[in-house]
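# step 3/5: fold
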Amino acid sequence: MEISYTVTNTNDHSIELLPPRSPCDCSVAELEKSKLLPGESTVVKVVFDPTNYDGKVVKSVYLKSKNSEEEIRLVLTGTIQ
């Protein structure tokens, strides 16, 4: 299963995003680009491996910029049948 999120830099300065963090080995996330100018966007692609899962699933991927301690939580939800 694959899902993409669009992330936009709403700051008035450039930011550099760190590689996404996934606490689960069942998902991998990649950034299209890491350096964003003000107003610029990028895509975060998340690939989830549903093997060994059944029913409702909620997984998270975390994203933050180089000079910030605050993380953004991207949530993937679905039902595996």
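# step 4/5: annotate
The radius of gyration is 14 Å.
# step 5/5: archive (pending)
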